[in-house]
Amino acid sequence: MIRMWERVIIHSDINHCYAQIEEMMFPELRKVPMVVGGNEKSRHGIVLAKNDLAKKYHIKTGESLHDAYQKCPDLLVISPHYDDYLYYTEEVKNIYREYTDQVESFGLDEAWIDLTSSQMLFGGDPIVIAREIQERIYREIGITVSMGVSFNKVFAKLGSDLNKEKGLTVISKKNFRDVVFPLQVRDLFYVGKATTAKLNEKGIYTIGDIAHQRKDYLKSFLGKNGEMIWYFAKGMDISEVALSSYEREPKSVGNGITTIHDISTYEEAKGVFRTLVESVSSRLKDQNLKGSIISIHMRDSHLQSFTRQKKIDLATNISSEIMTTVEILLNENCLSYSGHLDKPYRSVSVCVSQLRHDYDEVQLNFFVDENERQKEKRIDIVFDEIRRKFGFGKIKKCCMELNKELTNFNPKEEHIIHPEGWFK
């Protein structure tokens, strides 16, 4: 039991979010193995969510539709309806907000709810309140959520992961060693595949193993991340749940695409990257931001990938400046011979980070013509205005027209944040 004077944090997770919303809208889908997935012909053929019947065939989120069909030839694939997902997940969060103003979203399908200050208004028992919220969501919207109740955000999220399908797990200061310590290190928040491998190499396999290490030892081979997960494992996370009205400053702005066919030439790569760059540039300006680190990520046809980045002298949100850096990274890392890339690539992305406000003071650079920079920025703004009024495809740079099949997409409008589970 969590005592009244302790922090009371709930983490709520909409089970199989996209698939469950489809089943809620179309109940007949509950009777067949079904996944929500992209367009296989356009190579966006990945499972975004699955229902319970598809799960029985061991279909996994993130695998290709081709592989999913191999496991279940009768699989029904539903194209995603993002507007519906945005609407219904917001309706769920509106119920959370009836209990507290501290509701922090984590993707579309997850949220932390801080009841520390408001629990007495609803009876004072966090477990009863959590059950009430679960029942209301199911009764009023038709969606099930799993919940974790704990004294910090990390353990609350861990609890919601332990007992899916409308489950509820309580992790208290009294029981967390029994509940949390036996779990694998990969179950701890922010411990991904690479960190898991490094920990396992050192003979560290469980969350309890992490907690029993010296903090400095973990930091010696994991850096700051080692220190952070040591605090997490010992139940010492003190991060706050943000207010519903609070919007975090983004740390980066980026866009990516899986192309309709492999990119094999420099000109093809340039056209796709230019399309992505113009979206990133526009989104930066929309948020009055600029950045000084440009990075590209490329994945080949064998699903091997790399990321490269370059720091520039003057922070920017100007598309031509971002593109110049992207071209440098392309030339340095994957240009082979006579205009060809070193290998075919199937997906690419570009990102701008180390952000600052666009209205921050400009550091003068005698080697840069600031008037010319502002001219380029005004050109970007004109392009953005035309696209807002008439559509993204109504005005394009020449390199975006050389292979329309590759560049016929709108990265800004199609930019969707997937549930957190997508990245696991």
TrEMBL record:
EC number: 2.7.7.7
Any one Gene Ontology cellular component term annotated for this protein: cytosol
Family: Belongs to the DNA polymerase type-Y family.
Keyword Protein transport: no
Cofactor needs: Mg(2+)
Keyword Transmembrane listed: no
SUPFAM superfamilies tied to this protein: DNA/RNA polymerases (SSF56672), Lesion bypass DNA polymerase (Y-family), little finger domain (SSF100879)
Pfam families, alphabetized: IMS, IMS_C, IMS_HHH_1
Species name: Coprobacillus cateniformis
Protein name from the UniProt record: DNA polymerase IV
Annotated catalytic residues: 110
Keywords, alphabetical: Cytoplasm, DNA damage, DNA repair, DNA replication, DNA-binding, DNA-directed DNA polymerase, Magnesium, Metal-binding, Mutator protein, Nucleotidyltransferase, Transferase
